[in-house]
Design a protein that fits this description.
This protein has 195 residues and is mainly alpha-helical. It is built from ten helices and no strands. Helices cover 72% and strands 0% of the residues. Helix 2 (19-26) crosses helix 4, helix 5 (77-92) packs parallel to helix 9 (158-174) and helix 6 (105-115) packs antiparallel against helix 9.
């Protein structure tokens, strides 16, 4: 129990590092929460006009999830899964930002990459396909996490499938505003063009 709790605490604090906000401020772009959706994740950083900064945010948000799980794995698979869930929650509800964080997509991809890389790879490919076809990052994320939950249920052990499904549910819930905008036809699109 102590190990599970330690893994969760470490996972939460790693997950709560707001890389999008930190990088945007270091790059002189101010508070990323004041533009676009007000989110601290890579998609909103992309709206600031810097694809490089957005890509770095994506990688670091993934990396913090991967690191959390890797640390948890030292205490066993249960601790790794505890760290995974806590890292995603930390990104979504960081104590440093009044518990108002991101949607958790990149961090979720990071934790699942370590827990079950085939599931993460499939989810990433689904995200890319849907994003390229629709140019809606939110729709791509929703379809990708649903695919990840379904695939995890089919190819992983039950405990891991439950964790992946739980993370997917959290991501969907954090997209409630995006879902409303998608139905209203007012959701912002993303651009893959250079420049």
């Amino acid at each position: 129990m102590i190990q599970l709790l330690a893994a969760a605490v470490i996972g939460y604090f790693l997950g709560s590092i707001p890389w999008g906000l930190v990088l945007s401020r270091l790059a002189g772009r101010g508070d990323i929460r004041r533009i676009g959706s007000g989110n601290i994740g890579a998609t909103n950083v992309l709206r600031s006009g810097s694809k490089g900064l957005a890509a770095l945010t994506l990688l670091l948000d993934m990396a913090k999830g991967m690191l959390a799980v890797a640390i948890g794995q030292r205490w066993g698979s249960a601790a790794a899964m505890s760290a995974a869930g806590a890292a995603v929650i930390g990104h979504m509800f960081p104590c440093w930002l009044g518990f108002r964080g991101g949607k958790g997509v990149a961090t979720a991809l990071g934790v699942v990459t370590v827990l079950a890389w085939p599931v993460a790879l499939a989810a990433a490919l689904v995200w890319l396909a849907v994003a390229l076809l629709s140019r809606y990052s939110s729709l791509a994320a929703l379809v990708a996490v649903a695919a990840a939950a379904g695939l995890a249920a089919g190819i992983t052990e039950r405990r891991l499938a439950v964790v992946v499904t739980g993370i997917a549910v959290l991501v969907v819930l954090r997209h409630h505003a995006n879902i409303r905008r998608l139905f209203a036809g007012s959701e912002s699109r993303i651009s893959f063009k250079k420049g």
